[in-house]
């Protein structure tokens, strides 16, 4: 019997007959599918990122239930230590401030005031020469930085690093005591909590007794949910209620600080898909309707309704598939750009247009093409010959 | 007697649309034999195109019998009718009806897409047909790059490329100047004379009818006596 390839040149020529409209249709499909692909890739990177490492799996973060920006009393620490299964507790204070020129986003990275004795046992995946670790514990103004961060700025041990505070009205002047390796390659700098507290004493006229987070280490991944529940229950009737979550969940709540990111992304994705569906449905069905007379000619030559339906649908899916492929290529490039850009979220460094996402995008593209052409194509293919021929369009 | 290619008995076609009721063909009996070149004449609205469409199975009769090339057309499904038309009938329109995005040879190849011929064979058949109509120099031209007469010759090539037994033409010279019309008519006459094609051509033009071997007249859907034209 006849081969499909017989009709491909015809399909191809017809698809791109109206050059300007074809380009616009393909471009709008490409743009929307690029956006959709990017959103899906972000969604996947954020919410289905790589499994936690063993060290991450036993870490929890305690924060104020109200929001990330609200601190908690230091006195919580003693009570948290008493929860069964908690092996270690460390406070962690977010120090905003600016490094060098704040206008350059490259100068933005996480700086925490922590207890230097605890940080390397809680973050057991960090590795640091023992001498450097001791120097960090010993000197009040010492700090340590991840290798990713140190490499970015070309820091060597002994480097003087100054942060001008914004949340805290002090300037901290630090000396780099060590550079540690972090398998997750986060850009983080730790300095001593005691140093921050000391600097703030004259400003506050007293002790600082609040902190932004506690990091806990559980004895096993299994006790993580229970510890999280018990800690929060313990403070449920105090003025400072807490929210305790796994480290991964915590990072996400940090990312979605400004709102419900998940819902937001789903809503945008849905709206985008729906919009292209409408726009391209209109253009694709318009181009089918313009062809009614030609359908009549082809039927006169012996083309059956089935073959005509096939060619019309083939044309529509060729257009939408072209749009989808271009869109995916752009999304792929954007993912590559974002994941190598200096952004403070390690999650987005895994951003990639996976084969599954590509497949989903392309399927959506084809479905849009088929879906919007189906009705007009069915109509055109079933129309009696003489009706079609009489149709001037 | 040579075999009968087209035979109708009591062939009737009515168009009913709302309160309008038009009898386009009224009990037409006609016999057309193999190798005839029939000119179908008559005033506007007399049912000439309707008869041609019924012969090509592009429409179905309201009543009566119609056998074309030994086939009872009423017994075929829409799909079967498509394949039957592809292999047995070539149709030529007044307005050429070429596909504008395809060049001359691609237009001529189009009916062959439905056959089992290889790509190479399709190309060769189409080239032969174009050569026959004298357009071997214009194979890569798009319809809009051709004159009306050349377009109609491409359409004729498309109608004969499957080597059909029957060629139906609905006012093929209606859109052509006198010289181009004569070229087209000479081609049809040659196809009839040298290749034995049976041809039914609708025309208003007595000069065009002069190329035919027989002239039939329709009047308000009724077939008047058919005259044997003199000539070959
Ligand atoms: N689809 C249709 N619906 C309703 N009436 C129709 C239809 N097609 C043809 N008719 C009517 O049938 C009659 C015959 O039409 P037909 O087209 O066969 O005439 P014709 O002889 O080809 O005329 P012309 O020389 O103008 O082409 C006309 O009265 C026409 O109005
Ligand atoms: Mg007519």
Mean pLDDT across the residues of chain B is 92
Give the integer mean of the pLDDT values of chain A: 85
Beginning-to-end CA distance, first to last residue of chain B? 16 Å
Poorly predicted runs of chain B:
none
Query: Which architecture of chain B would the CATH scheme give at its second level?
Result: 3-Layer(aba) Sandwich
Q: Give me the count of strands of chain B.
A: 11
Oligomer: heterodimer
Strand content of chain B: 25-35%
Query: What's the tally of helices of chain A?
Result: 15
- How many structural domains in the coordinates of chain A? 2
Overall structural domain count of chain B: 1
Molecular shape of chain B = globular
Q: Ends of chain A: how far apart?
A: 33 Å
Look at the helices and sheets of chain A and give the structural class. Answer: alpha+beta
Question: How many beta-strand elements of chain A?
Answer: 12
Please write out the topology.
The complex is a heterodimer of chains A (393) and B (232).
Chain A: H1 8-15, H2 19-47, H3 54-57, E1 59-64, E2 72-73, H4 76-81, E3 86-94, E4 98-99, E5 110-114, H5 116-122, H6 130-138, E6 142-146, H7 147-153, E7 160-164, E8 171-180, E9 188-192, H8 193-204, E10 210-211, E11 213-218, H9 224-234, E12 242-246, H10 247-255, H11 261-289, H12 292-300, H13 305-340, H14 355-382, H15 385-390
Chain B: E1 4-17, E2 20-33, E3 37-41, H1 48-55, E4 63-68, E5 71-72, H2 78-88, E6 89-92, H3 104-109, H4 119-132, H5 148-160, E7 166-170, H6 178-195, E8 198-202, H7 206-209, E9 214-219, E10 222-223, E11 227-228
Helix pairs in contact in B: 4-5, 5-6
The structure holds adenosine-5'-triphosphate (ATP) and magnesium ion.
Magnesium ion (MG) is lined by residues 48-49, 170 of chain B.
């Amino acid at each position: 019997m006849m081969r499909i390839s017989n009709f491909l040149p015809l399909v191809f020529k017809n698809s791109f007959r109206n050059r300007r409209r074809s380009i616009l249709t393909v471009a709008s499909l490409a743009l929307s599918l690029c956006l959709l692909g990017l959103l899906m890739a972000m969604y996947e990177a954020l919410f289905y990122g790589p499994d936690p490492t063993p060290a991450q799996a036993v870490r929890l973060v305690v924060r104020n239930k109200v929001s990330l920006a609200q601190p908690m009393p230091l006195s919580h620490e003693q009570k948290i230590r008493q929860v069964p299964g908690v092996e270690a507790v460390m406070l962690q204070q977010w120090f905003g401030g600016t490094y060098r020129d704040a206008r350059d986003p490259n100068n933005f990275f996480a700086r925490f005031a922590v207890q230097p004795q605890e940080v390397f046992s809680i973050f057991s995946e960090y590795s640091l020469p023992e001498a450097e670790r001791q120097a960090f514990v010993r000197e009040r103004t010492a700090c340590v930085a991840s290798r990713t961060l140190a490499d970015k700025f070309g820091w060597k041990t002994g480097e003087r690093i100054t942060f001008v505070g914004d949340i805290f009205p002090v300037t901290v002047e630090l000396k780099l005591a060590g550079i540690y390796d972090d398998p997750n390659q986060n850009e983080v700098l730790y300095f001593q909590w005691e140093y921050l507290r000391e600097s703030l004493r004259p400003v506050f006229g007293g002790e600082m007794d609040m902190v932004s987070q506690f990091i806990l280490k559980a004895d096993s991944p299994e006790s993580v949910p229970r510890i999280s529940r018990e800690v929060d229950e313990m403070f449920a009737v105090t003025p400072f209620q807490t929210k305790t979550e796994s480290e991964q969940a915590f990072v996400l709540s940090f990312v979605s600080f400004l709102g419900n990111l998940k819902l937001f992304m789903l809503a945008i994705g849905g709206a985008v898909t729906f919009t292209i569906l409408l726009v391209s449905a209109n253009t694709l069905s318009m181009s089918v309707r313009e062809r009614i007379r030609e359908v009549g000619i082809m039927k006169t030559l012996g083309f059956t309704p089935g073959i005509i339906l096939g060619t019309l649908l083939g044309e529509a899916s060729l257009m939408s598939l072209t749009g989808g492929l271009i869109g995916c290529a752009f999304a792929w490039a954007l993912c590559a750009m974002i994941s190598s850009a200096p952004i403070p979220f390690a999650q987005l460094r895994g951003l990639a247009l996976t084969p599954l996402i590509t497949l989903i995008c392309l399927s959506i593209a084809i479905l849009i093409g088929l879906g919007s052409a189906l009705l007009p194509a069915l109509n055109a293919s079933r129309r009696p010959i003489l009706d079609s021929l009489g149709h001037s369009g | 007697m040579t075999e009968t290619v087209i035979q109708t008995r009591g062939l009737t076609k009515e168009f009913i649309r709302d309160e309008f009721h038009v009898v386009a063909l009224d009990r037409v009996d006609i016999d057309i034999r193999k190798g005839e070149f029939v000119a179908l004449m008559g005033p506007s609205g007399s049912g000439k195109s309707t008869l041609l469409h019924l012969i090509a199975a592009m429409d179905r009769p309201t009543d009566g019998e119609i056998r074309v090339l030994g086939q009872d057309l009423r017994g075929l499904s829409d799909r079967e009718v498509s394949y039957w038309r592809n292999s047995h009938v070539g149709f030529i329109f007044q307005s050429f009806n070429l596909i504008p995005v395809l060049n001359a040879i691609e237009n001529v190849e189009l009916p062959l897409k439905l056959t089992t011929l290889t790509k190479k064979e399709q190309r060769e058949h189409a080239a032969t047909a174009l050569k026959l109509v004298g357009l071997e120099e214009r194979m890569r031209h798009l319809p809009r790059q051709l004159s009306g007469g050349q377009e109609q010759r491409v359409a004729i090539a498309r109608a004969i490329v499957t080597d059909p037994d029957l060629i139906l033409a609905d006012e093929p010279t209606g859109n052509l100047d006198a010289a181009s019309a004569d070229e087209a008519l000479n081609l049809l006459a040659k196809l009839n004379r040298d290749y034995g094609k049976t041809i039914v051509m609708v025309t208003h033009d007595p000069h065009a009818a002069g190329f035919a071997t027989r002239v039939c007249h329709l009047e308000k859907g009724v077939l008047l006596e058919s005259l044997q034209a003199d000539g070959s």
